């Protein structure tokens, strides 16, 4: 073995065997693999060739009693027993050995914690080694671990199995079996019979106190029973009839025993189901109402469903629906800013089932809520229509008188420039009037300040009402560009302009 491989168990030197016991098997005091040696690269065992030979090693560990889980931890199973063998039996059928926890729970009928316990026991006994360890990341699917089925070094030593490394450059866990001692052949034959037999779920305990007492004494003494010699599968009869020693009981035909259980061709309907679904009890109705509330009300999104179920237990027990709760919340009034949704709901629902104690009262409140919803919808439609007419209709004159005079002066100047300057047939008085209509620098500055103030409030009518050349001449490039940006933003549903 290489220096990388860590010892799989604490070995105590045994007495030196006599010359006559050269073919005898070794005596091992204990079996335990630490966590650092539970990887394929650090394991001292060898990879099992197939599931059958690996199950021989599993049954040997179960019957030897060398591995005791409670020596290394204070919780979990007390011994390596039938349940661990059942889990190993499912692993022996997988290639590659990449079982998921949910898969083993479904196959064995155990809980998730029990499956994790027995997988850890198989690793500590040296029967499994990590190839890739699974991951569990929040928001992502869990990745199952991939294992290598290992035969512990203690198994080879106990049965006198000889191994050889055929390739000098290969890892130590690729050792191949070349022979076995005479003293271990009988035990290997027994393990072969157990490995070929399928292990089923243990039968429920009887009411007799003697078997329970015997099992308790065996557990206290550390005696581990491997697999029972009883046939656990359902007997299948080839002939036409069979008579058992217990009486005249005939076995069903083989077509009825494909899964080991006789099934009726027409499944019976459960009396506790209505319409194919189970009828909810009081707790189920609470959780159903809580789930609907967290989906329907925006300020309850993300709240804990069990907490909301506890808060709404009164109205749920009174037969309220999510529509009734919405109507009551409209009657009470909702807050604009919510810090803790469950606390606000508890305050709003206080005494609701006593105020609206009849279905007629709840129906009236629901009608009021629906009427308010319809009125709010119409109000939003009117607002959108008014805004559309405001920005897409004809231009309205400014409300300020000073701005109105400045706009008129600007229009007059534009018209005068379009007519080729001052008219030739007018006298000095006319010329003075035209010159007087031209805005001064101070008036242009005030006009630009007024346009900038409207742009700050989201208004662009003062700039967009003019043609581009005139607006550019009066207001400048910066204000005209800002007005165009606001106009393009008005047509987008992702932007909203206004003022407080």
Q: Can you describe what's shown?
A:
The chain has 500 residues and is mainly α. It has three domains: 35-201 and 217-221, no CATH class; 282-388, no CATH class; 395-490, no CATH class. The chain has helices spanning 51-64, 82-91, 101-108, 112-124, 153-159, 185-195, 209-221, 282-296, 305-311, 313-317, 322-332, 341-348, 352-355, 359-392, 401-418, 428-437, 441-456, 461-464, 468-475, 477-490; strands spanning 46-47, 128-132, 146-151, 161-164, 176-180, 273-274, 277-278. The protein has a three-stranded antiparallel sheet with strand order 1-3-2. A hairpin with a 2-residue loop joins β6 and β7. α1 (51-64) packs across α6 and α17 (441-456) runs parallel beside α20. Mean pLDDT is 75; it is low at 1-25, 217-264 and 423-436.
* Largest sheet features: 3 strands, antiparallel
Helix content percent band: 40-55%
Number of helices: 20
* SSE run: EHHHHEEHEEHHEEHHHHHHHHHHHHH
Number of domains: 3
Major β-sheet strand ordering: 1-3-2
Nearest-integer average pLDDT: 75
What is the gyration radius calculated from CA atoms? Answer: 44 Å
Overall 3D shape: elongated
Structural class: mainly alpha
Beta strand %: 5-15%
Q: Enumerate the spans where pLDDT stays under 50 for 5 or more consecutive residues.
A: 1-25, 217-264, 423-436
Spatial gap, N to C terminus: 81 Å
Number of strands: 7
Summarize the structure.
Helices cover 46% and strands 5% of the residues. With 500 residues, it is mainly α.
């Amino acid at each position: 073995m290489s220096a990388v491989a860590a010892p799989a168990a604490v070995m105590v030197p045994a007495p030196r065997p006599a010359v006559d016991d050269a073919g005898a098997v070794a005596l091992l005091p204990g079996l335990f693999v630490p966590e650092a040696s539970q990887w394929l690269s650090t394991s001292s065992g060898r990879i099992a060739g197939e599931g059958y030979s690996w199950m021989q090693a599993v049954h040997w560990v179960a019957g030897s009693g060398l591995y005791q889980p409670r020596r290394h931890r204070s919780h979990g199973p007390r011994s390596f027993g039938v349940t661990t063998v059942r889990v190993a039996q499912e692993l022996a059928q997988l290639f590659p050995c990449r079982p998921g926890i949910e898969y083993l729970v479904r196959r064995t009928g155990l809980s998730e914690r029990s499956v994790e316990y027995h997988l850890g026991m198989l690793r500590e006994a040296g029967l499994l080694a990590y190839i890739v360890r699974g991951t569990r990341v929040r928001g992502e699917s869990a990745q199952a671990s991939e294992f290598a089925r290992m035969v512990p070094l203690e198994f080879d030593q106990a049965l006198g199995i000889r191994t050889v490394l055929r390739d000098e450059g290969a890892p130590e866990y690729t050792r191949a079996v070349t022979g076995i001692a005479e003293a271990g052949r009988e035990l290997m034959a027994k393990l072969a019979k157990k490995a070929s037999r399928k292990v089923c779920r243990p039968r429920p305990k009887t009411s007799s106190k003697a078997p329970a007492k015997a099992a308790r004494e065996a557990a206290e003494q550390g005696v581990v029973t491997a697999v029972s010699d009883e046939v656990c599968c359902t007997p299948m009869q080839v002939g036409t009839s069979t008579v058992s020693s217990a009486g005249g009981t005939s076995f069903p035909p083989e077509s009825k025993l494909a899964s080991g259980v006789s099934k009726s061709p027409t499944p019976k309907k459960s009396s506790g189901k209505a319409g194919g679904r189970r009828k909810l009890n009081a707790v189920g109705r609470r959780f159903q109402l809580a789930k609907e509330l967290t989906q329907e009300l925006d300020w309850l999104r993300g709240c804990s469903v069990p907490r909301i179920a506890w808060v709404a237990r009164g109205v749920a027990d009174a037969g309220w629906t999510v529509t009734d709760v919405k109507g009551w919340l409209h009657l009470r009034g909702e807050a604009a800013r919510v810090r803790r949704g469950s606390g606000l709901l508890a305050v709003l629902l206080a005494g609701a089932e006593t105020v609206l104690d009849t279905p007629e009262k709840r129906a009236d409140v629901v009608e009021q809520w629906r009427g308010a919803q319809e009125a709010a919808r119409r109000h939003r439609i009117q607002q959108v229509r008014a805004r559309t007419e405001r920005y897409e209709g004809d231009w309205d004159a400014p409300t300020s008188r000073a701005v109105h005079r400045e706009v008129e002066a600007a229009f007059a100047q534009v018209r005068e420039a379009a007519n080729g300057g001052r008219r030739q047939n007018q006298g000095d008085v006319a010329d003075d009037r035209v010159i007087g209509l031209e805005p001064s620098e101070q008036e242009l500055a005030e006009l630009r300040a007024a346009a900038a103030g409207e742009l700050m409030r989201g208004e662009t009518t003062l700039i967009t009402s003019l043609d581009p050349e005139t607006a550019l001449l009066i207001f400048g490039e910066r204000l005209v560009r800002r007005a165009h940006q606001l106009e393009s933003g008005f047509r987008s549903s992702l932007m909203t302009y206004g003022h407080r």
